[in-house]
Amino acid sequence: MKRSLYFVTKDLRINDNLALKLASxxxxxxxxxxxxxxxxxxxxxQSKALGDNRWHFLQSCLSDFNRSLLAIGQQLHIVYGxxxxxxxxxxxxxxxxDLIKTRLPGTNENRLMESLATHMPSVAIHQVEQFTLFExxxxxxxxxxxxxxxxxxxxxxxxxxxxxxxxxxxxxxNMFNQWLAPTINRPEWLNNKPYKEAQQGHYFDGGEHEALExxxxxxxxxxxLTYKEVRNELDGFQNSTKLSPWLGYGCxxxxxxxxxxTQFELQREKNSSTQWIYAELLWREYFQWLHFKxxxxxxxxKGLATSYPLTSFYPERFTKWCLGLTPYPLVNACMxxxxxxxxxxxxxxxxxxxxxxxxxxxxxxxGAAWFEEHLIDYDAAVNWGNWQYIAGVGVDPRGGRHFNIQxxxxxxxxDGLYQSKWIEDKALLNEPLDSVDMADWPLxxxxxx
Length: 449
Description:
single chain, Serine Threonine Protein Phosphatase 5, Tetratricopeptide repeat, Rossmann fold, 5-stranded parallel beta sheet, alpha/beta, 41% helix, disordered C terminus, 449 residues
């Protein structure tokens, strides 16, 4: 008898879910999502892996996915604890023969799968490729030979066909006879305080149903035809596709987005803006395979470069950057929006990242970790890859990006409307950036951490 455990991760959908389709070929099935204790503990960069905004969004994604499973004879069991211990215990308790999950590029995910294989040698582990547009087998190169620039990658992928999305799953195998009781009491280490929604800014409901509704709504409008012209704006719901939060947790797949875009181009129009949307999908794709290729280097101070960046860690500067108390009003407005809502425009992310690295001379990894905690659309490969890009230790052949904040302000907030929206007390901005003497600052940090 094939007794499968579907380890749910960033694939919270019924449509175009190859892992779920594989799991459907079982006699008995257990669908499990593990809320790991480590997500809520500060890292060595002082930020948690999962902040309040993203945790709130994730919970709505899980609830929506569970409702979909219930409609086809299954249920999502949410377990709190250490991922490895939880999965090993469940496999032993239910005599699992097959463990199924979506393949992800993160190094922690890979370590977990290696540990599972060591602890459970009799369990067949299946990792399904569906977090990316393409499967590794159809890439025109080996991962170790991934081009060192996006432009070369884009050229090589120009003739590769994106697979069609799978149809919706309509039925699933039976649950185990001795089914686990639903978790009612949450552990003490989990933050149970009521979620406080921001009074302004963009709000996202999680889940596949919301994702599909937004996908349909966006591509039923004229917005895709002007994407290129508005994509750098700091504010406005239609200045981008706004699909990234749902893509991040797999409520919708990149293939679904691609094929919806293709249909739009066939039925409405194909122009430079629609092509730019695909280019953004392909950037996401490139960062995923880059993460697979370089592994731990994604998170190292030196990154992919041959030398260390000339930055360190200045606690006061980092804190003021996080709280929106720097000498740069536009940066402060962006940081306030991010902290309060869990979302920030792409242009805003570039501006604040450049400020931290170039104006404040702070180790880029602290900024990347802060984004990880707060962004509801956090994607490990995209987030850390973009931060490396700004810091000059990534794939950018020009050695990083330095944005002139005064120029960016004149271009994207000339009337100060965005700043007024997100800065309440401007008197706080008169405080000096550093309140300690230079002699008290730490020495340059050049370890790999």
